[in-house]
Structure formats: structure tokens, C-alpha cells
């Protein structure tokens, strides 16, 4: 066994040296060398006039479904004898199974082109996290949410370290580190809010076709215990007394509106005169946090 193997190596080495040294005889433009073992595998040696050099090309010629196929495999010595033999055997196997190797090659080229296009698109879409945040705020948050300033401030305060990174390079470990750092300061609610904001931004990036996976997935929020504290009537009275006596008119009016209506801070801050019906004593909120219209009497 080993003797035959060594013998084959010697033959291949000798064969390679001969192919490297072979020249086209004067007056000839083409020389064809047949492979000694694989029927149909040939090395075509031709003179390239424009480039002034000899070209040596591996070709497989074989009958397939009553057709004479000529399949170019590659150029020698860039495609070695060993590799040419391997490819020739694979092509012969395809034809033996009734598969046209030309169709396979066409499909491979189509897939390669598609992959190249996808790669170009991926690189074109591979923006930085800062660019993604800007895109999210300008093209989505400002249009469809009322808390976009809070989102911007939150990300800028706690996730600024990600700004220079390409979004395709951001990993769960990067988000987890930020989440942990905030949590170490005891800001569990803040950590949860930031995680929710980042998750929303990356989900939008997936929808836009910028990335395939959300790096926030797998990170668990802190389980928060709901806290509720109600002021007694006496406490409310003292609070209003201090508020009216010491606060500025603007702060006083804001606090009283929030106290008597129970409206969100953002809704009170965004209140406009056109939203108020003084005759019916109704305050119309065009759009709340959940996107629904609300009325306060």
C-alpha cells in the first residue's frame, strides 16, 4: 500500500516538472497533454499573443446525454495536478448521476453573486451605533413617540461608549456590561429602562434590514417590586400650602395640574391652550404615551 502511494507521489512530481518545462514547438499554436489516469482530463497549452506568454489550461472533455462537453477547470500551475484530478473526478461523478455540471456551475455563480451583493449591502448598512440612534430618533421616535427626548438623554448618558462601534460588532456582552455597571450603582429601574430602550432601537434596526440579531436578547431585566405611596388628606393640605407659598407660579401650576388630574409629567408639560375646552371644563390630550387620545374633566 505505502509503496503504491509513494510511487504515485513520484509520478505526480515528475509529471509536474514535465508540465512546467514543456514548450510549444515552432509553428504550432496549441499542444494538448492527456492525463494518464483520468480519461478526458487534458492540459491545453496555447500561446497568448496579446500577453506574449504560454497559457496552460485544464479541460475536461466528456460525453453527457449525447453531447460533447468541454468544461474548463482552471489554469496550471495555479490549479495543481492534484486539484485538477479531484475536480475532474467530481465532475465525472455528477455526470454519472445524470447531473449537468454546467447547471451546477451556473447555480454556484448565481449564489456567489448573491453573496457578494449581500456582503456589499451589509457593509453599506454597517453604520455606527451613534448613526443608528440618530436614524431611530429622526425617522421613527420623533414621529411616533412623545418621549423621544427621554430616550435620547438615556442613551447618551449611559450607552455613549457604544457610539463609535459598528452595530454589527455590538455583542450581548457589551450591553450586559453597561447594564451591570448601572445596576452596581443601585439604579435598577434605570438599568431596566435603558435595556428596554436599546432593545427597541435594535429591533427597529432589524426591521430596517441593518442587522440580523438583537444583542440585547438574553439579558434579563431586574424584577422590580411595585411601590405605592398615597398622601393622606392632611399631607395633601400641607403640600399645597407649601407649594402655593414657596414655589414659583410656573412650578405651582404644573404641580397642581399633575396633582388634580393624575396626568403624566410629559402630558402636562406639552399642554396647549387649544387642548382645553373652558366651557365644558375638559382637557383633551391628543396623544398619550400609549398612542391613545385621552380626556380629563
From TrEMBL:
Residues 226-297 form the Tyr recombinase domain. One of its GO terms (molecular function) is DNA binding. The keyword Phosphoprotein does not apply. Keywords: DNA integration, DNA recombination, DNA-binding. It comes from the Bacteria. Residues 127-206 form the Core-binding (CB) domain. GO terms for biological process: DNA integration; DNA recombination. InterPro entries: CB, DNA_brk_join_enz, Integrase-like_cat_sf, Integrase_catalytic, Integrase_DNA-bd_sf, Integrase_DNA_bind_dom, Integrase_recombinase_N, Phage_int_M. The keyword DNA repair does not apply. Gene3D superfamilies: 1.10.150.130, Integrase, DNA-binding domain (3.30.160.390), Intergrase catalytic core (1.10.443.10). Belongs to the 'phage' integrase family. This is Phage integrase family protein. It comes from Orientia tsutsugamushi str. Gilliam.
Amino acid at each position: 500500500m505505502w509503496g503504491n502511494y509513494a510511487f504515485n507521489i513520484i509520478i505526480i512530481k515528475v509529471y509536474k516538472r514535465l508540465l512546467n518545462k514543456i514548450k510549444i514547438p515552432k509553428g504550432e499554436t496549441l499542444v494538448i497533454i492527456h492525463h494518464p489516469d483520468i480519461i478526458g482530463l487534458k492540459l491545453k497549452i496555447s500561446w497568448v499573443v496579446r500577453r506574449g506568454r504560454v497559457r496552460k489550461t485544464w479541460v475536461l472533455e466528456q460525453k453527457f446525454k449525447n453531447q460533447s462537453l468541454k468544461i474548463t477547470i482552471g489554469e496550471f500551475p495555479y490549479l495543481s495536478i492534484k486539484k485538477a484530478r479531484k475536480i475532474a473526478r467530481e465532475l465525472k461523478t455528477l455526470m454519472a448521476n445524470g447531473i449537468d455540471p454546467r447547471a451546477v456551475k451556473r447555480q454556484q455563480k448565481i449564489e456567489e453573486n448573491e453573496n457578494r451583493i449581500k456582503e456589499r449591502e451589509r457593509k453599506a448598512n454597517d453604520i455606527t451605533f451613534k448613526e443608528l440612534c440618530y436614524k431611530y430618533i429622526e425617522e421613527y421616535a420623533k414621529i411616533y413617540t412623545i418621549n423621544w427626548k427621554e430616550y435620547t438623554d438615556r442613551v447618551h448618558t449611559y450607552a455613549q461608549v457604544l457610539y463609535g462601534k459598528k452595530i454589527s460588532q455590538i455583542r450581548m456582552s457589551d450591553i450586559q456590561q453597561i447594564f451591570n455597571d448601572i445596576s452596581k450603582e443601585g439604579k435598577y429601574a434605570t438599568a431596566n429602562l435603558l435595556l428596554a430602550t436599546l432593545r427597541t432601537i435594535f429591533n427597529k434596526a432589524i426591521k430596517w434590514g441593518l442587522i440580523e440579531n438583537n444583542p440585547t436578547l438574553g439579558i434579563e431585566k431586574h424584577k422590580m417590586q411595585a411601590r405605592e405611596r398615597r398622601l393622606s388628606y392632611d399631607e395633601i393640605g400641607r403640600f399645597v400650602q407649601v407649594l402655593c407659598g414657596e414655589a414659583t407660579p410656573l412650578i405651582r401650576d404644573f404641580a397642581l395640574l399633575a396633582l388634580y388630574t393624575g396626568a403624566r409629567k410629559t402630558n402636562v408639560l406639552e399642554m396647549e391652550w387649544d387642548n382645553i375646552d373652558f366651557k365644558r371644563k375638559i382637557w383633551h390630550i391628543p396623544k398619550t404615551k400609549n398612542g391613545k387620545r385621552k380626556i380629563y374633566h
